[in-house]
Amino acid sequence: MTSADPSASPTGEKSRLVLDPTERFSEILFGLIMVLTFTGSLSAAESGRNEVRTMLIGALGCNLAWGIIDAIFYLMNVLGYRGHGAVALRRLHHTTDPSEARAIIAEALPPVLAAALEPEDFARLRARLATIPDPASRVPIHRDDLRGALAVFLLVFLSTFPVVIPFLVMSDAMLALRVSNGIAILLLFGGGYALARYSGFHPWKTGLTMVAIGVALVAITIALGG
User: Fold this and answer.
1) What is the pLDDT of residues 70-94, one digit of tens each?
2) Half-sphere exposure of residue 56: CA atoms within 13 angstroms, side-chain side
3) Residue 186 belongs to some domain of the structure
4) Is residue 204 part of a domain?
5) Does residue 14 form part of some domain?
6) DSSP state of 14
7) Greatest Cα-to-Cα distance within the chain, rounded to the nearest angstrom
8) Domain residue limits at 85
9) pTM of the full predicted structure?
């Protein structure tokens, strides 16, 4: 599930990203694992078109449902994050204790940034934030939030399609399964490679690690009856 806040802060400013690259890869990995639990449980040597059709309906239907659920959780996280920011701003406006003000500001900042600030930096931030009016008591949902929820839904749902396409266009179930697994491996590796470039890790090692993790998670899910 996504936990990013892609939306407005209490000041009304909006960030540029719906999900950061780490969360985008998490959503893609989630979608791939969901569909691979269906394709991985298919016995291609014994399955006919009816079994393949049932598998496709199950895989796409499951990811459709989880895409909707993930979009709803996205909106809940947006509202929770925005509401917490509004509460923090109101606390900052009403406190007279400099130490408490610093703690409130530090909590809202990434730890690396908060640790780098001096007391005078916190004082300047507090003075700037003091000019912002108290946010409304009712946390709003913006149009960008709904677009973000739609993007999350599409990311989860559409990540299944490359894996199921072979079953739609190939009559040989065994060949379709092999091609599908190859596509899944490529997607897992590509996602890990892109994540590594963003995070400063070794791209090839991270890509191969993500393939191994994905395969292991699918195996565990199938073994537990998922």
Assistant:
1) 889 889 988 888 888 888 888 898 9
2) 20
3) yes
4) yes
5) no
6) B
7) 73
8) 21-223
9) 0.69
